[in-house]
Every structure is written in C-alpha cells, then in structure tokens.
Design brief:
The chain has about 900 residues and is mainly α. It is built from 51 helices and 14 strands. The strands form 3 sheets. It has a 10-stranded parallel beta sheet. A two-stranded antiparallel ribbon has the order 1-2. The protein has a two-stranded antiparallel ribbon with strand order 13-14. About 50% of the residues are buried.
C-alpha cells in the first residue's frame, strides 16, 4: 500500500482505540463500498483481532506490519497469552524483541536447550504453563533459573525425549520456587531421589499431577508422601519395587489415576492396587510384559475401576467408565463424551489426563516396536490413536498423529510399512481425520499430520484414498509453508505419493512441482531433510514425460544442479542426481538432456559425485551421466570434465557392489564409449578389465551394459587386443551362450565379431610397444572359440522349416516368418554410427561364413521397420552403397544359407525405408 493510506492510532482512556479521521481513506472506502468490494481497512477491530488469532505467529507478525492500526491491534494482550515457538529459532535476541508483548503471556511451548536458555529474556512473570521438548541438553542451572523467574508456574512438562542433564537438584529448586505448581511431568531423569520428592510434597500443596516417565530410578517410597497427588505416572520407569508400591500407594487419599505402562509390574501388584485403593478409578498398564504373560488375569471384578492393558477391550472399558454402559463399543468414546452433558467432576479431570498418558505411551510403544503387539495395533491401537487425534488438547493430537506416522513403519531405511496397520487406519476414517488436522492453522498439527499422511501413503491403497480426499492439494499447499518442519513433511508426502504413476499429473495440477522447486531455493543453505524430500519427489515426477518437462520449466534443472554442486548431505546428493538422471531421460528428452548438460557445473558435479563414499550417491550419479551421454555434446563434455577417469575408477571399485551400481557404472562407460576417442581413452585408462569383471556378474541388467560397453570398445583394434589379453573372450563367450538377456548375448556376439574380423590381427603385428600388453596369448585359439559361439548364437534364431521355405520362395510371407523368428525386440533401440554400419557391411565380404552370417543378422536387427533407429540405419547403408554388397551376399554360391536369407531380408528392409522416405 502507499504511505498515504496508513491510519494513525491514538489511545483515549484505558482499552479504547480511536482511529484518527483521514478524509482520503474514507473516500476510498466509500468508493470501494459503492463497487460492492469489502475493504480490509474497514474491518472492525474485534474482527481483525479474531483474524490475527487464527494465524501462525509468523503470519500474524507479517499481517500486523501492514499498517499502523493493525500493528497496534497485533499487540493486543489477548493474542499473546500463548506462544508456540518450537518451529522457530528462539534465542536471547528474539526473546528480547518479543518481551514487550509477553507481559500477559501464560502458556509457552519451546524446543531445545537454546530456547530454554532464552526463556528468561521474555520477562513473562505471569507464565503459568511451560512445555518443552528436545530437552536432552537442558541443565539443572537453566531449569532452576526458569523456576526462580516464574514463581507463578502451575504446569511444567519436559519430554517425551530424555532430560539427561536434569537431576533431583533441579526438581528441588522447582519445588522451592513454584509453590502453586499443579502439574509436573518430566521424562528420562536418571534419578529422582527422596529429597526432591519430599520437597515437592512440602512446598507444593496444590501438586495433583505428577509424571516421572522413563526415569532410571524414582524413590517409590517418597512418592507415598505426596498426599495431594490425584494423577501419577511412572510409565517406562525402571527399578520400581512393586511389592512395596502396591502396599503403599493405595493409601494416597486422592489418587484417582495411575499409569504404570511399559514397566515390569505383575498381576499381584495390579490386583492389590485395584482392590485396596479407595478412590482409584483408572489404572493404565499398557505394554507390561509380566502382566500380559498371565492370560488368566482379569480386572472385571473391580466395579467402577478401569484397567487399560493389552489384555482388555479398551473401548468397552472406556464406555463403561464414561457412560456407565459397557455395551457401548464405539471407537469415538472420547469425542462422544465431550459432546455429551456430564456433571462428573472427576471425569472432567480424568479424561484430559487419560488422553495425554495414552498418547504418550502409544507413541513410546510405536517408537520401540516389540513382537506380540501386531494384533493390538490393528484391533485397538490404531483406533485409539485416531480417537486421540480428536482430543481438545493440541499436544495430544500431535502425539497421536506422530504415533500413527510411527506405528505403521517397519523399516524406516527402506520405507517399508505394515500394510495391515495402514489399511486399518484407512478403514477407521483416519485419512479424513489426518487431512483435517493438516488444514489446521496450528503448524505443529500441520507438521505431524503431514508426516503421518506421508508414511501411510507408502501403501498404494492409502495413497489412492489420500488423493481422492483432496490430500494432494493440501500437501502442495503445506509445501509452500514458511515453517521448515511443515514444508519438510509435506514434501515427504508428495515424495511418497509421486511413486504412483496415477498421482503425478495431480501433483503437477495442484502446483506441487513449482512448490517443490521453490522449497529447494528457499532452504538451500539449511535443512537436509526438506531438501532430500523435495529432490526425491522431483526425481519421481521427472520420470514422467509431461511432468519432467514441467520440472524443467519450473527451474528444476538449476535447483537440482545447485544441490548436486553445493549440498554435502548424502541423501540430498543421491536424490538430486536421481532427479537429474530422470530429467535427462524423460520429457522432451533432447531439450531436457541438453539443458542439464549445459547448466553450469552440472557435469563436473556429477563426475565428482561418482567418487562419493556413499554407494547410493555413486549409483545415481553414474546413472545421470549414462543418460546424459546420449547427447553428443554432453558425451564430450563429460569426458572433458574427467568423466572417463572417474567412471573407470568407479567400475574398478564396484565388483562387489550392488547390481544397480554395477549396471550404471558399466552403462555410463557404454554411453561414453560411443565416441571412438572416448573409447580409446577408456582402454588406456584401464577400463577393459573392470568391464570384463562386470560381464561376469550374475545380474542380467549388468550383462547388458557391460556387453554394450565391450562391444563399443572392441570396435578399436587396440581395445580388442586388450580384451583378448585380459581374458575377455571367455567372458564374452559365456555371455553369448548363457546370459538370460537376449540383448547381452547379441552384443557379446557383435563384440566377438569385431574382435576377430581381421583388424585386430593387423594391429597386433604393427602395434607399438606402448599400445601392446606384455601377455602371451593364443589369438588362433581365442578366434576358434569365439567363432564357434557366434555361430551357435546365430543358429539359435534359425528355424530350419522357415529358412527352407524362404530359400524355396521369395514370397514376402516366407521372409516375414524368418524376420519374426529372428527379431530381438530391444535391439531396435540401438543406434550405430556410419563407421559401425560400414564395418558390418564390410564383414559381409569376410572369408568367414560365420562372420558373414553374423553381419547379415546384425543388419537385419538394425533395419527392421518399426525400430527406433531403423530409418537412420537404412539411410547410412544406402549412402554407403550397401545394397550391392547385400545382393552379392544373397546370391553368393559359397555363402551359408543363413547369410543369404538374412541379406535378402535386409534388402527388403532397405526398399521399405526408401519407399517410406519417398512418401
């Protein structure tokens, strides 16, 4: 807006806001009203405050800066009673800048030790509730100072991660400084001794809710002295003396809720607690192995008392507690209770505590998967988490969503999830619930809901449901968030959804591609998580032709090359290289391929990544170089960037690597070796031996790329001799005779044909000392073995009846039958140079009948109509006058029948392409 429309604010009296009169503003507003347009400047103050209250803190601050009036309204105390700073860098400077607005701050959520140290700079003396996570590095000193500066504190919660540096000394300081403390929940304290607990009992008479969770040692006797306690949790805490505890804690006069989940409590202690405690109404004992081993144990005889364990029907028990009706088995009992009229004061306290403890224990159990919980998760656990997602407590909703994200995962490293659990969530309406949370304005809920959607979407059925419920649009919107955690989880969701071909177009239509590219630029200097997910999603999308073009148009090439060049995180490097590989192979592949190759530093970065210590990075970088090498300019530029040396070194090092890395290393050398200069360089750099080793791989895909590379290398007589001297003949013979891949056998046969068409013999005789290798070999023996297997290979494609019919008749049908029986479908993708085609034409005149047949067979494959490069090959042959040589081969009395028939078919193919070209 222009400066002239900013409104001044003057204050008259307490709490009154008066807007100064600006005629030009009034005129503009009236003019807009006449046009039927609502002007934001005319909104009532209460409406503006309500609007600001629904925004994140970042958006609230941004909108407050729009004008002076809104800046004043944005500082209203009611907007600053609660702060959630977990998603922000919160340090002393930020705290000082926020301090003027935090006079009335009552509730604060923070993350990490740096944030904890900064809290005192807020000067929020009225703070009542403090909640923090990532607390491992928070010290006694920090916690003691916080307690001393906030003596009105009523609730302190630190966890669920362990507070490793906090001791009983800090707990005593809290007890002395915060007499009004009502709730204290701490996780992972090494030792909570009697002095600390007795200090709480003495100085905090209002303390009704205590949680010492996942602690190594808690003085259970001293806990019996905290007579004010109504809710107690020692979930996950070890070294509890349950025989003593069960005889002591039942005397606590006000105890109504006890959580002993994930401990070694047994049935006898549970029985005593339920039978002797007068006021105890809820005992949570989930995931307690000793209790669960006693399948005969039953708590049904304790009327009006609820035991929640793996042995009980949790929903039936909750219905009995909440509605005094154990026939009600709905899975939304918490929501039903909240919407019902109730006057039970105890239940009004029990349910929030119960939800919090259940969400905590379920998340902890999901994080540490154990055998024997599968049925529980499918039948009850997943539904419990969904029910808790509808809690009125934001932190319970978050933990429930995180629990859903966690409990479905079997193997995080390989993105493997339990399909039964995922589909159970879907059946119980979980997708719609999660998407509803993802649309919340609260960024913590957005982040955790997006994480759960992302993990669940690994399952194809869930991914389909997410798409049908509008989840792609929601995730694409969240990917634009200024909150890195939200953007990261949303990008993860798009990454998993983009695996499905049916979702790629929808992601593009929702603006997801541009959002992902923008994420890379936005967080390029930090946040390996968000960058890896964004690059991974773009890699999947780039595998689709249409989406690949859109990725390039959105600036994806520049973004991904920037990651490949500058990012040091291996996961990011791997996904960026994979994305560049897919871009080079899809979309308008010619323009995409050239665009990647011409992007400054792209090829140098990929060459450098082939030297990474991480196998996945090496594999994807080699794959990218392989795809890029299909472009002539890229091929030479890769070599100029040191690609030959790097890829030879990679091939030398990957004999024991995964088939994927082996395939791409050989494939990249295959692509580079199309250029004869590169082929010679590969031979001189020592590339022959590792390719021969890869040709012996057990993987079919590696056979093909290694054979292709050796075929190209064998075109050069010097390389051909190296192959012989390195023992490559036997490797090629094995491929030619026994590989499962027809293409590998075909290219191995062609490599052997190149090697023994006579040129290598001449080279061996006249070659210089530097070009020859000091190994004694028998070329004659190698030649005989090679020709024998070339003949056997070609013979595999000869049907005696079809050949006899073709020899007796020149009818097209007879030749077509031979063609169909001889065709290797994938060979149509091979593209030969003029020199290579010329060599096969020359081979038709070779004295060896086997090489004649092989040459004719190869030319047949390269010219079959419908082949990708058939017209190109036919043109090369016509320019070289191949028709005359083919006619001679077809008519030669001494030529083998196979060579004659194949030559006749090639002649017909040339005629077809000539007619087709003329048309």
């Amino acid at each position: 807006m222009s400066r002239r429309v900013r409104r001044k604010v003057a204050r008259k009296g307490k709490g009154n806001v008066v807007l100064s009169s600006f005629p030009e503003i009034q005129d503009e507003v009236l003019d807009l009203e006449r046009q039927g347009i609502v002007d934001w400047r005319s909104l009532p103050n209460d409406t503006v405050i309500q609007l600001l209250s629904c925004l994140s803190y970042r958006d609230r601050a941004s909108l407050s800066s729009t004008c002076r009036t809104w800046r004043f309204l944005g500082s209203s105390p009611c907007l600053w009673t609660s702060l959630d700073l977990r998603a922000h860098r919160f340090d002393a400077n930020m705290a000082s800048s926020l301090a003027p607005r935090c006079v009335h701050l009552q509730k604060l959520r923070f993350r990490g030790a740096e944030s904890a140290d900064a809290i005192i700079h807020l000067r929020a003396r009225n703070l009542r509730e403090l909640s923090g996570d990532y607390c491992r590095k928070i010290t006694d000193a920090t916690l003691a100072v916080i307690a001393a500066r906030h003596e009105l504190l009523e609730s302190l919660q630190l966890g669920p991660d362990f507070c490793e540096r906090i001791s009983s000394d800090a707990i005593k300081a809290i007890a002395h400084c915060c007499p009004g403390l009502n709730k204290l929940r701490l996780s992972g304290i090494r030792d909570v001794n009697a002095d600390a607990i007795n200090a709480l009992a003495k100085h905090c008479p209002k303390l009704t809710d205590i949680g010492f969770i996942d602690c190594l040692n808690v003085d259970d006797l001293a806990l019996g002295n905290v007579l004010s306690v109504r809710f107690l949790s020692v979930a996950g805490t070890s070294n509890m003396k349950w025989g003593v505890v069960s005889h002591l804690w039942h005397k606590l006069p006000h105890l109504i809720g006890l959580d002993v989940s994930r401990t070694d409590i047994g049935p006898s202690a549970v029985t005593r607690l339920l039978s002797l405690s007068q006021n105890l109404r809820v005992l949570i004992a989930l995931n307690c192995p000793i209790l669960e081993e006693d399948t005969s144990f039953s708590a049904s005889k304790y009327k009006n008392k609820l035991l929640i364990s793996l042995l009980t029907d949790v929903f039936k028990g909750l219905a009995s507690l909440l509605f005094n009706n154990n026939t009600k088995k709905g899975k939304n009992v918490f929501l039903d209770w909240r919407t019902s009229k109730n006057n039970d004061k105890d239940l009004n306290e029990i349910i929030p505590w119960l939800e919090w403890m259940l969400s905590h224990t379920l998340l902890r159990s999901a994080e540490s998967p154990q055998q024997g919980l599968d049925n529980f998760w499918v039948e009850q656990g997943g539904a419990l988490l969904l029910s808790l997602m509808q809690s009125s407590q934001e932190d319970v909703q978050e933990r429930a969503a995180t629990g859903l994200a966690t409990f479905v995962v079997i193997d995080d490293e390989n993105a493997s999830i339990d399909c039964g659990r995922a589909e159970a969530v879907m059946r119980d309406g979980g997708i719609r619930l999660l998407l509803g949370l993802a649309k919340s304005w609260r960024e913590g809920l957005q982040s955790e809901a997006a994480k759960a959607i992302a993990n669940l979407s690994v399952n194809a059925n869930v991914a389909k449901a997410v798409a049908e419920e509008g989840g792609i649009q929601i995730l694409a919107g969240l990917a634009r968030s200024m909150n890195k955690l939200v953007a990261e989880e949303a990008a993860g969701g798009l990454w998993n959804l983009s695996v499905g071909e049916e979702h790629k177009a929808a992601i593009a239509e929702a603006g997801g591609i541009q959002a992902l590219v923008d994420l890379i630029f936005k967080w390029s200097s930090s946040g390996d998580g968000v960058l890896e997910r964004a690059a991974g999603a773009l890699a999947n999308l780039a595998a689709d032709d249409k989406c690949s073009t859109e990725v390039a148009l959105a600036g994806g090439v520049h973004a991904l090359v920037m990651l490949a060049r500058n990012c040091k995180f291996e996961g990011v490097q791997e996904q960026a290289a994979r994305a560049l590989a897919n871009l080079a192979a899809h979309g308008d592949s010619n323009s995409n391929n050239a665009a990647v190759g011409q992007e400054a530093g792209a090829l140098e970065a990929l060459v450098q990544l082939t030297r990474s210590l991480h196998e996945g990075v090496r594999q994807e970088a080699a794959g990218a170089l392989w795809n890029l090498s299909f472009d002539d300019r890229n091929r030479e530029a890769i070599a100029a960037a040191g690609g030959v040396q790097a890829l030879v070194a990679l091939a030398q090092s990957c004999s024991n690597a995964s088939p994927g890395l082996q395939e791409r290393a050989a494939g990249a050398l295959w692509g580079l070796s199309v250029s004869e200069a590169n082929s010679i360089a590969i031979g001189r750099e020592g590339g022959v031996a590792p390719l021969i080793a890869l040709a012996r791989s057990e993987a079919e895909d590696v056979h093909e790329t290694a054979a292709g590379a050796l075929w190209n290398l064998a075109f050069n007589p010097g390389n051909a001799l190296r192959i012989v001297e390195e023992g490559g003949v036997s490797a090629l013979v094995d491929l030619c005779s026994s590989s499962v891949s027809k293409m590998a056998r075909f290219m191995a046969a062609l490599a052997l044909a190149y090697m023994f068409d006579g040129r290598m013999d001449e080279f061996a005789l006249v070659g210089t000392a530097s070009e020859s290798i000091s190994k004694s070999v028998s070329l004659d023996g190698a030649r005989r073995m090679a020709l024998k297997h070339i003949e056997a290979f070609v013979f595999m494609f000869t049907d005696p009846q079809a050949f006899a019919a073709a020899a007796a008749s020149s009818a097209p049908a007879a030749l077509a039958q031979v063609t169909e029986g001889s065709r290797i479908q994938e060979a149509g993708h091979l593209r030969c140079s003029g020199a290579e085609i010329g060599r096969f034409v020359t081979m038709l005149r070779n004295p060896s009948s086997i090489l004649k047949a092989c040459a004719a067979f190869a030319l047949l494959q390269f010219t079959i109509p419908g082949g990708r490069h058939a017209t190109h090959h036919a043109s090369l042959m016509q320019n070289a006058g191949a028709a005359r040589v083919l006619r001679g081969a077809a008519a030669a009395a001494t030529a083998p029948l196979e060579a004659k028939i194949f030559a006749r078919i090639v002649l017909r193919n040339l005629e077809y392409h000539q007619i087709d070209h003329a048309v």
